[in-house]
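Morning!

As promised:
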Amino acid sequence: MRPVYVLGVGAHPWGKWPGTTQVELAIHAMKAALGEASLQWRDLQGLVAASSRFEGGMGWGLHANELVQTVSEHGLACINVGGACAAGAVAFHTAHMLVASGQYDTVAAMGAERMPKGFIPRPPGSADDPADHDFLRWKTMGATNPAYWAMEAQRRMHDHGTTAETFAAASVTMRRHGAMNPNARFRTPSTVDEVLASPMVSDPLHLLEICAVSDGAAAVILGSEDQARRAGGPMIQVAASAIATGRFGDPAARIPTVGSTPRPGVPHTSEVVTAVHRAWDLAGIGAEDVDLVEIADNTAWHILAWPELFGFFAPGEGDRMLTAGEMTIGGRLPVNPSGGFLSFGEATTAQALMQVCELAWQLKGQAGERQVEGARIAMSAVLGLGANGGSIVLKR
Amino acid sequence: MEEAAITAVIPQALSLDPPAPALLGTRCADCGTLYYPQVVSCRNPDCEGKDVAPARIMARGQLYSFTVQRYRPPPLFAIEPWQPYVLGLVDVENGLRVMGIVEAPLEEVRIGMPLRLSTLTLNAEGAQTVMTHSFVPDDGADT
């Protein structure tokens, strides 16, 4: 294994872009990343795609090949990986391994997604299998994704006394961050009153406490130390990339599960907790070393709960940390300076790569108004369907 | 079926046979883990045998958490008429936690309340009635 560096990152702004194809979104993000890296398409030796779930793919989850057949037919290696909402982290992980192995010097990871409207539906073409949790949750009880997150939030209110106002304040913090990010879709700050006045979707979560779905694309180009010196600018090293899957007995209300087997002592959201702790071990760091974190805030609950699950705060302490301003820029642990999923809306497979873009911009000091001063170690954490977890640590 | 019929929305997952409805799951013959819905193998990494057999789950337990499905879900959920309903996670037997509709007024639903398995009519057209599983407050009486 040799050290791997971020040569460049790029994104297409998140939003609803009915007039732009998925491939066009991807090309936009890749062009921006190649520009930062001072590279041309023909310089890439490999492209790893976080395969789209909802569009394109020639029916088999492919879009790295579609992209090179559109833009640059120069014989590079194309790899297409799954992982649902964590696919971007799996793609990054794969690209990282390719460069770290020494066989490739310059590899891109990218994800582009155009999402269907409304609640995230069953994947197209799914079979009506009576042993499939996803089929059962739709067919026997009509449970949408927010219902799962809402039951976690309800339980948190019971266990820790979290209030409706604190959930709302978490959304307010994210939207304040997002207002400073030109790539975010929702760039108007909200107040606690506005969040609480938005429609109740799944008690206790309101519309403005749940991430929307968006279209977007993000790309990250990784390379060797020589490549990084050639690209110029601050050297941003991949301190660790880790992926993991869930553990038996995990107590999380995991989408789309209708029957689970919780066991005492097993970490909640174990796929992500395992990935984060593996990444910390690989990077030789602990919670106290992290200058900022980008997490998959599908809801306001995630903002309060996830930092506790990873060990940044004690269980139940997140509420006080949030309201004391410790999770915002300038606080003890800035959470989602990008604005997070609550400001972006989720473009599933692209989302984890958008997180990495933000880590890189923060470490390079290019985050503008939302800059975390002096950031040197930045990390991400993401969760995908199928109990996929991913965590990436970058350092300057 | 030309006669009047009451069927489960997914017959492989819910039995309507007397004396009481049961969820159809699987029990690991080696480590005892209980699963719903049915599985083809035990997934406990500490279990080496992983031999499984069908299990009927009568399902009495306590409410772990709940929410309200306020928006009408996609049409695969064929409930008529539609109105918002409570969804809950219920800790039943042998460490199994099952999700389902809770038939109780929201203001009476609280974490920890005892519940038992029941059935709910999803839709009835002509002689055909389609049922799904639900949970109702458990008065403690034998079913």
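The CA atoms of residues 112 and 138 of chain B lie 12 Å apart.

Hope this helps with the figure draft.
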